[in-house]
Amino acid sequence: MSHEIRSPIPGVFYRRPAPDQDPYVVIGSRIEEDTQVALVEVMKNFHPVVAGVVGVIASIEVEDGGMVGPGDVLMTVDEAPGEGAVP
Questions:
Q1: Residue 36 sits in a domain of what CATH number?
Q2: What's the whole-model pTM score?
Q3: Tally of structural domains, the chain
């Protein structure tokens, strides 16, 4: 089963905590419900994006530094069998 991680707010999407650091996740990364997968920045405030599901990152839909709107799909996750999205 597939799950979409969506942007909670409009802003700039960042895949890494700082320009000189590795991305939070890459395609194939195993994630837990509380895994931080990205940041969205609006007006110099950085908001963490948390997976909310157990599984493996299947795709990353937004370029690092790209603009996103509320509800835009950031990533898709192949959910682990027997696990579901957090309500």
A1: 2.40.50.100
A2: 0.87
A3: 1
Nearest to 5 by CA among 62, 69, 68, 73: 73
pLDDT tens for 29-80 read 999 999 999 999 999 999 999 999 999 999 999 999 999 999 999 999 999 7
**Dihedral sign (CA 20, 35, 66, 40):** negative
Is residue 61 in some structural domain? yes
Distance in angstroms (rounded) separating the CA atoms of residues 64 and 80: 26
Q: How far apart are CA 61 and CA 21, in angstroms?
A: 20
What pLDDT does residue 86 have?
44
- Structural domain boundaries, residue 33: 2-79
**Residue 47 contacts residue 8 (beta carbons within 8 Å):** yes
Tell whether the model's pLDDT for residue 85 goes beyond 50: no
SS3 48: strand
